[in-house]
Amino acid sequence: MLLALASLALSPGCGDDGVSATADGTDGSTDDEVGETTTSGEDTSDTSTEGSTTEAETETETDSSEDTTTGGPATPLQAGVAMRPLHYPVGISLAGYGGRVGGINTAWSGLFWGTKGFYSYPTIKAMVLDDGEGDRVILMKTPMMSGESGVTDAVAAKYMELYGEDIAGRVIWGGTHSHHAHGRYWRLPDIFGAVGADTADEEVIDLIATEFAMTIKEAADAMGDAEFGWTTLDDWDPDDKVYGDRRGENDPTYGKDPRLTVLGLRRPDGTPLAALFNFAMHGISVAYENELLSEDAPGAVELAFEEYFFEQTGEPIFGLFSQAGAGDASPRGGFLGHDPATQRMEMIGTVASPVIFDAYQNLDWTDDPDIDVASRRVDLTYEKFGYHRNGEFSGELFDLLPIDYTWGGWQCTGVAGDNDPNTSMEGLPKQCIPVDTLLIGNDVPHAEVHQTYLSVAKVGSMVISTIPGEPNYSLVKYARDEFAALMDQEGIPVGPEGLELMVWGYSQDHLLYFSAPDDWYQGGYEAEMSLWGPFGGSFMVDTTTAVLADMLAGQAGDVVLVEESPSLASPGGFTPRAYEFSQNVGEVVGQVDPERQRTEVARFRFGGGDPSIGAPNVRLQVDDGEGFVDVPHPAGFAGMAYDNSRAAMITRYDPDPAPNGQVLSGREHEWYVDWEVPADWPAGTYRFVASGPWWNASEVVDYEAVGLPFAVTQHQSAALTANLSDASTLNLTLILDEPEYVEDGSTPEQGWILHDAWHGPGEGIHVRAPLSLQFTVDGALQPEVYAAEYDAEADLYVFDFGQTGIDANASVEVEAWLAEDLEPAVVGAPVSGP
Questions:
Q1: Is the peptide bond before 85 cis (omega within 30 degrees of 0)?
Q2: Could you tell me the pLDDT band of residue 70, with boundaries at 50, 70 and 90?
Q3: Cβ(115)–Cβ(126) below 8 Å
Q4: What stretches of 165-227 show up as alpha helix (H) in DSSP?
Q5: Catalytic one among 330, 394, 465, 691?
Q6: What is the pLDDT of residue 71?
Q7: Could you tell me the pLDDT band of residue 49, with boundaries at 50, 70 and 90?
Q8: Locations of Low complexity compositional bias (predicted)?
């Protein structure tokens, strides 16, 4: 973590937490080569950029890209981006894993246990693109387990309610498929709650839809001249360092989805706005027992990419993760032997970020992509899939009575799960649980099972096609093959000279797993967790392919959302949960110890607000010699500081009395944040400042809690070695002990941070930050201070000792400290050799 701590003070992120890019491209607060690469578009501008400022600072400025001759936009493409945290309500139960019963019972939990904090902020990020001719598409990444059509509809309805604009059919959104984000948004009968999303709650759905709509509005308000580009890389992770295949039943026919697609957005002057990266990776690094909101490995890639991009360019950018064929792809990250899930997640981000960055840097750009979008609400019926003709979704109930799975079937078996392609259920009776039997007391067809929502968008030469639920790679491959066949039929090349396809899985709706027919016939977990048999997935792809064909032929029509039948969903009303009074708001309940060594944990405990209103923002401040200022945000986001939105901190809620499922008139809403001091953090004097909303029994207002100063110092285990390889070359290493990993129940308390991404845990933490060196010769301290840089190839500091003029045969000692230390934390060692 190399930060110029004294160079910039950022204002706290209070009030509206949304962050957007303004029309001139600035950020502001509003209320190794791998794989084959193809790119699209034409580079029409230079890449010169200017530093970011807040929106308030640019209100009176003229958009540098404005056409001053006509007063209109300089580019046909208009675009804006925005980000909002979704860190509340802490207490909400999690979607993704079934059977999370017991544990904390909160006012926001259902069958499953409630959450007790978060590991970095879950975020919503939106890109709004408009071609200047009335065609607009909204691409939105969310931290959810998946898309869901009820939420898709609710977002459009909420946007109309709040802003009076019809965006139905224009929003394409998906979940990162973290198994540790908000549940309770899938309107299935309660009996299905234990499967993995918990029981539905109308207030949760409304809350989510509201936050989604507000993010879109912030992005729309930040519209300005823009350029768009895309690229694809195949076999970009050949050693499975980022993700790997998890389904053995379809081996060797199908492995993991090998493709990475990157969509880029920037201003005409080169100012970056966003990069959407699409690849396949389940969000299951963290175990089922977890009780913290977390975006898991997909979110870790976003965090790492944003920080890496800023480190390389000095400019901020939003990273948006979108899923592809992740139904049979799991996260990895353990190739050096790191065991804690949080460390593996960071490793995944560390490996993926440079690849995504290089892809973005090599994009070709266009400022005039045509935009088209079409969405369809489609009925799902046994006959539509063709099962009434071929009998491929039928069986024998209790091995005796013939049965057709007219309304779908679940947990289907029929062959032993193995990796023999000749072992197939094709043509054989299937043993399934009929879905209409599961829907006890509910009429069929059912909105969440017997309808779905599909979308296709075309932005220039990039086609984006959605698949609901969890597609396996076999289905994504089928989609790409069908796309290639359509392009061949239309005489259009596939690639930069024609059109390319990006498949967005886990988007728009959720219907569990989907596979290509031959893959489904192999059985196993992914086939059993499917509702619509062997042809369910291929039907989705065939439908979107037909929509694309109509779009290319100009026959998609002017109505964006076309419904085969009106939605069967019947959203219910709700009485909002009351807010609880905060009995100890603003009190500092637990101060940080006066001194914290690197890799140790600093804990700050304070009284805050009801999590139903919002979670606290806890930022770190440093004494720069003239007073305390905010430590700059590591991804460069204006108006934000280094805070608990990032992975170095874990935020927990610990109220008194403890949650019991009830809303009380008041309680002590106590929160605490743990910060594991990075091994390369600049030594100095710091403090925490917490702020957020609270209910004072009449209105929501803001509080602030300021901690006492504490010192960050070098760890006592720090060991410096200094060896002369020859009379003019000094090799140095600075190594700290790896902290022991400690959990409190399911929550990390120590050792969760990846301090060294280049060495295994048994090798110690090798510090790579620039050093300052000072020498003592024959007992006399020399006045000069020298700089030493880490040589990544040599895996140590290589210092030009000859420049010192010191006799290599003398008795020499060296003292070293981090060059960015505000208060030098010195480690010494004798110089040995040559």
A1: no
A2: low
A3: no
A4: 193-196, 202-221
A5: 330
A6: 63
A7: very low
A8: 36-55
Residue 345, pLDDT above cutoff 60:
yes
Sign of CA dihedral 464, 470, 473, 474: negative
In order, the DSSP letters of 412-467 are: EE-S---S-TT---TTS--EEEEHHHHSTT--SS-TTTSEEEEEEEEETTEEEEE-
Q: How far apart are CA 122 and CA 180, in angstroms?
A: 10
- Least Cα distance to 225 among 22, 464, 459 occurs for 22
Q: Please report, for the chain, the start and end positions of each structural domain, with discontinuous segments joined by +.
A: 32-50+77-376+450-466+494-563, 581-712, 719-832
* Paired tokens of 345: 């997640």
Distance from C-alpha of 469 to C-alpha of 186, rounded to nearest angstrom: 12
* Cβ-Cβ contacts under 8 Å for 205 (sequence gap 6 or more): 150, 151, 154, 184, 185, 187, 571
Given this chain, do its domains 581-712 and 719-832 carry the same CATH topology?
yes
List 586's β-bridge partners, or say none.
none
Whole-structure pTM value: 0.92
Burial class (CB in 10 A: 0-12, 13-18, 19+), 401: exposed
Average per-residue pLDDT for the chain: 91
User: Residue 14's pLDDT is what?
Assistant: 36
Residue range 226-232: mean pLDDT, rounded: 98
Once rounded to an integer, what is the mean pLDDT over residues 284-298?
95
pLDDT exceeds cutoff 90 at 127: yes
In the predicted structure, residue 40 carries a pLDDT above the cut 70: no
Q: Which residue has the higher pLDDT, 504 or 12?
A: 504
Task: Identify whether the C-beta of residue 644 lies closer than 8 Å to the C-beta of residue 618.
Answer: yes
Which sign, positive or negative, has the C-alpha torsion 588, 590, 592, 594?
positive
- The answer to whether residue 576 scores a pLDDT higher than 90 is yes
Quick one: 771 exposed, middle or buried, by C-beta within 10 A (0-12, 13-18, 19+)?
A: buried
Query: Which is more confidently placed, 63 or 81?
Result: 81
Q: Is the pLDDT score of 381 beyond 80?
A: yes
* Spatial separation of the C-alpha atoms in residues 431 and 284, rounded to whole Å: 29
From residue 561, alpha-carbon distances to 169, 376, 449, 571 in Å are: 5, 6, 19, 19
What is the CATH architecture of 719-832?
Sandwich (2.60)
Is 330 catalytic? The answer is: yes
- For residue 551, what are the contacts with CB-CB under 8 A and spacing of at least 6? 372, 374, 456, 458
Lowest mean pLDDT among 66-80, 183-197, 493-507, 698-712: 66-80
| Residue 706 to residues 5, 586, 591, Cα–Cα distance (Å) | 19, 8, 10
Sheet with 318-323: list strands edge to edge: 36-40, 227-234, 259-266, 272-279, 318-323
Tell me the pLDDT tens digit for each residue of 440-453: 878 899 999 999 99
Binding site, by residue number, is: 177, 282
CA distance 18 to 690: 18
Q: Which residues pair with 212 in a beta bridge?
A: none
d(CA 555, CA 370): 16
In sequence order, what are the residues at sequence separation of 6 or more whose Cβ sits closer than 8 angstroms to the Cβ of residue 780?
none
Percent of the chain residues topping a pLDDT of 70:
91
Query: Binding site residues for Zn(2+), as ranges?
Result: 177, 282
What token pair was written down for 668? 């002590």
747 alpha carbon, distance to own chain's centre: 20
**CATH number of the 581-712 domain:** 2.60.40.2300
Neighbours of 770 (CB within 10 A): 15
DSSP readout, 519-554?
HHTT-SHHHHTBSS-TTHHHHHHHHHHHHHHHHHTT
User: Does an H or E element contain 158, and which?
Assistant: helix 149-163
Region 43-64: mean pLDDT is: 32
- Residue with token string 């480190």: 311
- Supply the Cα-derived Rg of the chain in whole angstroms: 28
Helix 296-313 vs helix 341-361: angle between axes, to the nearest 10 degrees? 50
Main-chain dihedrals φ then ψ at residue 321, nearest 5 degrees: -90, 130
